């Protein structure tokens, strides 16, 4: 099976990417921390002091507000098309949770913050998950044809 | 202040994820589907985020400390070990199956789609299980070292 066609959006993607980078810089400026979705979530569900959980919850609330603000400004909800079945979403989600925990980070923590710090671990992690994701998508779409 | 800074960082991040197109799993998977419905937009997201973070971090690090809290909390581990690479490979597998990574899924919750909630629930379950396994492995390692 082939995927749903999506439009090539270099300018929006560059602008959105710059905003993602800006948020990482703001967290470093405000709290001196690396901004990673994995770290934020891990800290929310395990351990930590109530105060520590508070700002993490506030950050997730801010993230969720992002698309809502876009709806408010433009009247249009950003497009989210899930091109795979619900079981694949659930299985994939669980596997992602295992992987990011043992790998100590995901696209935001390793791919953006870690590589911007020129961390050797983050370069290795990012190269690994990008290559494996590429291979997985190839096998699922072009070998298994799911 | 910590709550407010957390919320603002989250909001800027969520806007970036939404505007860049990272919020849409169809677009993310198409980035990895070079042999099919390829959409190179994500390279621009990554580029915009990396350049902004690379420059912004260096400006912030000219300060002696962040605005809140004691000092900059940067990872000090530089070891490339099996946990990092194995975990990242597992993450890449899950990402390729589901199309969501943690940082893109959290803002996508704002769109209210069932598939996003399913992914985040499975993700949290995966993180929780992996944290428990990791704690067990660490305890065993300490025991055998003692």
Task: Sum this structure up briefly.
Helices cover 74% and strands 0% of the residues of chain A. Chain A is mostly helical and 146 residues long. The termini of chain A are close together.
What does this structure look like?
- The complex is a heterodimer of chains A (146) and B (146).
- With 146 residues, chain A is mostly helical.
- Chain A has helices at 10-31, 37-45, 50-74, 86-102, 107-116, 120-144.
- In chain A, helix 5 (107-116) packs across helix 6 (120-144).
- Chain B has one domain (2-145).
- Chain B contains 6 helices and no strands.
- At the A-B interface, helix 1, helix 2, helix 3, helix 4 and helix 5 of A face helix 1, helix 2, helix 3, helix 4 and helix 5 of B.
Q: What is the number of helices of chain B?
A: 6
The low-confidence runs of chain A, each spanning 5 or more residues with pLDDT under 50, are none
Beta-strand share of residues of chain B:
under 5%
What is the helix tally of chain A?
6
Q: Label the structural class of chain A.
A: mainly alpha
Protein name (chain B): Sulphur transport domain-containing protein
Pfam family, one (chain B): DUF6691
Keywords (chain B): Membrane, Transmembrane, Transmembrane helix
Organism (chain B): Roseovarius lutimaris
């Amino acid at each position: 099976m082939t995927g749903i066609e999506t439009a090539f959006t270099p300018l929006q993607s560059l602008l959105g990417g710059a905003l993602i980078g800006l948020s990482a810089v703001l967290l470093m400026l405000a709290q001196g921390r690396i901004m990673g979705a994995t770290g934020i979530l891990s800290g929310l569900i395990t351990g930590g002091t109530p105060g520590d959980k508070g700002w993490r919850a506030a950050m997730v609330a801010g993230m969720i507000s992002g698309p809502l603000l876009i709806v408010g400004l433009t009247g249009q909800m950003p497009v989210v098309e899930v091109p795979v079945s619900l079981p694949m979403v659930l299985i994939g989600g669980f596997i992602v949770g295992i992987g990011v925990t043992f790998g100590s980070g995901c696209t935001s923590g390793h791919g953006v913050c870690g590589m911007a710090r020129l961390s050797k671990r983050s370069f290795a992690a990012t190269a690994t998950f990008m290559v494996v994701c590429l291979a997985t998508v190839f096998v699922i779409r072009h070998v298994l044809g799911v | 202040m910590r709550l407010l800074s957390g919320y603002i960082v989250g909001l800027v991040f969520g806007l970036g994820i939404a505007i860049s197109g990272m919020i849409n799993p169809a677009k993310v998977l198409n980035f990895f589907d070079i042999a099919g419905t390829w959409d190179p937009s994500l390279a621009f997201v990554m580029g915009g985020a990396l350049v902004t973070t690379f420059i912004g971090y260096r400006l912030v690090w000219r300060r002696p400390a962040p605005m809140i809290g004691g000092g900059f909390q940067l990872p000090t581990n530089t070891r490339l070990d099996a946990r990092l690479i194995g975990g990242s490979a597992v993450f890449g597998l899950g990402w390729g199956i589901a199309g969501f990574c943690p940082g893109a899924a959290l803002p996508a919750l704002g769109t209210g789609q069932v598939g996003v909630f399913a992914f985040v629930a499975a993700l949290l379950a995966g993180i929780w299980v992996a944290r428990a396994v990791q704690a067990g492995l660490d305890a065993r390692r300490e025991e055998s070292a003692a």
